[in-house]
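User: I want to check something. If I give you two sequences, will you return the structure for each one separately, not as a complex?

Assistant: Yes, each is folded on its own. Here is the first sequence with its structure:
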Amino acid sequence: MKSITPNIFVKNIDETIAFYEQLEFKLSMKVPDEGSLVWAMMTKDNVSFMFQTFDSLGNDLPEISRQNGGSLLLYIQTKEIRRYYDRIKSKVTILKGLEKTFYGATEFSIQDINGYVLTFAEQED
């Protein structure tokens, strides 16, 4: 195995792109090239997420929940976490502010506009 890129199902691709742009992610791919998007990939450094609309699934994969959010927490390791936190904290819903964990990481958690929880972490020296 080489990597993992989650494909996260959302109701509105355009709103999701706008939210992740606030987190300094860039739109790297989209489908279709023109018109209403059904899929997009957002990338920041070595982290990528794919976003796909629930509607684009049609009747394929009925096992996938058609609801926003869920029990999935995306854990993202980053650098310069305190600077990153300062740049985005006024643009997002903070669930848990910067704190040092018992396992030595400095972390904070936010909720995206689709109800997913993102935890950013750094092993600070």
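And separately, the second sequence with its own structure:
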Amino acid sequence: MANEVNTIGVLTSGGDAPGMNAAIRGVVREALANGKKVKGIRRGYQGLLEEDIVELKRESVSEIIDEGGTFLLTVRCAEFRTEEGQKKGAEICRKNGIDGLVVIGGDGSFAGAQKLAAQGINTVGVPGTIDLDIACTEYTIGFDTAVNTAMEAIDKVRDTSTSHERVSIIEVMGRDAGYIALWCGIANGAEDILIPETYDYDEQRIINHIVVSRRSGKKHHIIINAEGIGHSTSMARRIEAATGVETRATILGYMQRGGSPTCKDRVYATMMGAMAADLLCEGKTNRVVGYQNGKFQDYDINEALGMNKGVSEYMIKVAKNMSV
């Protein structure tokens, strides 16, 4: 087999996400079941360039499936964006006998995997990001846990917002993608949802909505604001000045990245990690694992990185109708 793999490396890159440990465990145990060796690369591409590499056995990944974060750690690496860094990374893989590599992360991490594939290292990407912003897949590791964490926190904020008859602006993560905000907006019954894909920065519309709701007897007003829009604190000051209604901003922040993963994130991450290992064992390279139409499947990295993903217009329409 031209691309036969004997030793599989695995790393996590970019932002951490609940379920990454389950994915690593899936890679390790599936690869070992296929008679392959496995090496873990600590601290992502930075750790690769520094040769921070350890051998992983079955027991190495015992009792981590319920843990948030990534036990392999993750660091963003500017050097790996350069051609010199990519060549060095491929050379280090070969030096350590790593002829197949599983990269767990987002689009930026996949771009690094793509470069390693061009250097002759078999690579497979696994989508690990709470933002749900990878176009080739309906599911990304960590989104389910993150959106449930945010939902539960927003429920609590709404309770106190109602008690004090406040407007609450709650900022959730999602730098360029509004999926967490949109899902929470629907799940939490928010009055307004602000996401990068659709927000027109018309604060007067929001102010008018608050005034009309207050006149109709509404005791609270919840605004879910995506991180990509941000400025929640200054927005709260402006809304309070315009409406006369006490307005507070709550930024949920990194709590959304942490915590024990949900059942879905544990199961789907395990399946994706195992599939990545199987693809490498089959001699495949330059692939990304995804989930579409109820099936786990794989795509060419070049194709995957070229896809665009938008939010569902139907979900947006329903969210608006629910808030009336």
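Because they were folded independently, the notes below concern the second chain alone. The chain has a mean pLDDT of 96. The longest helix spans residues 143-163.
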